[in-house]
Specification:
This protein is α/β, with parallel strands linked by helices. The chain is built from six helices and five strands. α4 links the parallel β4 and β5.
Length: about 150
């Protein structure tokens, strides 16, 4: 029986472009990936990419999203405007794992100016393969919304 590939909405601004391109080259065969840009290192506005990724994850068109920019903050702030996506700014393995286990985050936001590509690879792998624990975390997630 063939296991369905995860669907990933992927986006970056100019600061995240090189990591995005490198990740796509290495991992696009492992997932069904939609690359929403940016497609160069020329300056762009991060919300343009965060919106389309977050919309795709919110509507369940994609299982998960990955957003890359210089600090990760702008992407996370924009994506978290969409109910239910729970975009998590992660900077190490532990934060990527806990974002899934405890928060059921569906979008990984990556600060490319502060971590290596190799660490991003590890974080993405953990994020995309770690299950939500449920249990006591369900009530916490529900109470987080206004």
């Amino acid at each position: 029986m063939n296991k369905k590939k995860l669907t990933i909405a992927l986006g970056s601004d100019h600061a995240g472009y090189l990591y995005k391109k490198q990740w796509l080259t290495k991992y696009s065969a492992d997932y069904t990936v939609q690359d929403f840009g940016a497609h160069t290192t020329k300056r762009v506005d991060y919300p343009d990419f965060a919106h389309v990724v977050a919309q795709g994850v919110q509507t369940h068109t994609y299982d998960y999203g990955i957003l890359l920019c210089g600090s990760g903050n702008g992407m996370a702030m924009t994506a978290n405007q969409y109910s239910g996506v729970r975009a998590a700014l992660c900077w190490n393995e532990t934060t990527a794992i806990l974002a899934r286990q405890h928060n059921d985050a569906r979008i990984l936001c990556v600060p490319t100016r502060f971590i290596s590509f190799e660490l991003f690879e590890i974080m993405a792998q953990h994020f995309l393969t770690t299950d939500f624990e449920g249990g006591r975390h369900i009530a916490r997630i529900k109470s987080a919304y206004i």
